[in-house]
Structure formats: C-alpha cells, structure tokens
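Hallway conversation turned thread

IA: we were arguing at lunch whether anyone had actually written out Isoaspartyl peptidase end to end. Turns out nobody had. So, for the record, here is the sequence (308 residues) and right after it the structure tokens. Reply here if something looks off.
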Amino acid sequence: MQKIAIAVHGGAGTILRSAMSPEKERHYLNALESAVKVGHHILASGRTALEAVIKTVQYLEDEPIFNAGKGSVFTHEGHHEMDAAVMCGQTLTAGAVAGVRQVRNPILLADEVRMQSEHVLLSGAGAEEFGRERGLIFEPDSYFYDEYRYQQWLEAQRTDTVTLDHTEDRKFGTVGAVAVDVSGNLAAATSTGGMTNKKYNRIGDSPIIGAGTYAANHTCAVSCTGHGEYFMRAVVAYDVACLMEYKGVNLQQACDYVVKDKLVKQGGEGGLIAVDQAANIILSFNSEGMYRASRLNNESIYSRIYKD
C-alpha cells in the first residue's frame, strides 16, 4: 500500500536555543505542526500531493512569524516583494512568481501561473496583473506590516546592510512543503519574502525551478531554504534529483552530499526538505537549526528547531 508523507520547513540558519524563549519556541513548533496537519488531512482524504503542499504553504504564508506572505520582510524601499513556486512531480508542470507585491498568497498565484498560463515564471507588475485577472486576493501594505520586521528593517537601514531575515540570528525565513500522496505522486512548494533591506528587486532561489523548488515522481520533491545566491549557483533542488537519477544514490545520500558537502565547500548555508515515492522524508541542513516538521502515514508529527 502506498504511504503518504508530508514535510514542512519555516527557515534555517543560526537558530540557537539560548536566544529563544520557551514561549517563542512553542509558537514556532505549534505553527509548524498545524501546517503539517493541514497537508496531512488532505493526503489522508485521498487528495493530491499538489493540493497538500499548496494549502500547507498558504497556511504558512498566513502565519506572520514566518518570512512569507503576511510576515514578509521589508525591502530597502520599505515594501514587501515576495517570491513563490510550485511544481507537480507527476506532470512536471511548474509555476512561479517573483517580486510580487500585495498578493495575499503568492503560492496561489504561482499555481495560477502553472495552470492558467503558458509560462513558468512571472515577475513584478506583470505577475500582479495576471493575478488580478485570475481573481486572486490582494491586500493593502498594512496587511503585511509586522512590528518586529519593521524594527529589523530600521536597523538594516541604519547600518546599510542586507540581512538574511533576522539581524541577530541570521535566519533564512523561507517556508516550504513537500509531499507524496496515495497515488505515489510528488509535489513541492516554496514561498518567501526574501532578504530584509534587499535592493534592486533582488530575487532568490525560491521561485527558480531547480534551484529552490523541484519535484519529479521518478526521483523526489525538494524545497530549499538558505542563502539563495549559493542555492542558485549550486542548482540545489535539481542536483538532489540528478544524483538519484544519474548516480542511483538514495534520497538520504543525495541530500547529505549536496547540503553537507557541496554547499559547505561553496560557503552556502541553509537546508532543505525532501520526499520520494517510497515516502522517505529527509530534513537536511548545515546551519545551527531549521524550523521543520513532518508526518508519515498516521505516525506522530515530528517537529524540531535545533540540530539536536
């Protein structure tokens, strides 16, 4: 009988227990576990991995503690520019958006690009125009405002630096989900608000198919979180799949090599979540921590933040 599985992440980086209050830690874990429940319920109902990852990431976008959707960080100009991508492992169709503003759920717009356009990646005003044509929900800038993110932005402005989500603990706040359904189909979805104080419409790896997001039934589904420039150069998500397809290694071996060897040698920090058709779940990272959770079949939810 085909197993079902889902995994989520809420960012990776220098996440230290000593810098985290018990209340904040519980808040993160509760949010991750709730996201897993959203996706697992869909899978347990016999619905698709694609629906599961989209709804799961949508939930994470609506949770302001993560750097995606409502909790997105501020750009240099004081706006929110969001990226998202989704890929179906069965059909290899994919949709992505980059640098979009005021879209309540960028992951839903990415899926509209996948389903309703002849393209894979749309950006900026054009992507927003397409979203309005498709009837997506847009919100005023005030919807995305978060006081903590605002203070991060002020500090980054003061020092004229681009920071990776949090100035004090270098956390990469991208969110993502991967899943396998009862039919053995895989899917991956990723969403992010990018870097605090980013300039020049900078775009990271999340919306780049093969870099931050990838899914193919014959190999795996992958969603990444980390320093996007390194993940793009290393084509991380596709690299994991390639190792499985061309070298014949298993998912664990592929993830460990890319994340803990190749990326480290290049100076790239972060991690990824991945799943294959056999419902093997990998939560791999080379940083101090990664907000992560997963569930296999009807087993208990696994949720962790730190290395241990």
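OS: looked through it. The longest helix spans residues 22-44.
IA: good, adding that to the notes. The chain has nine helices and 13 strands.
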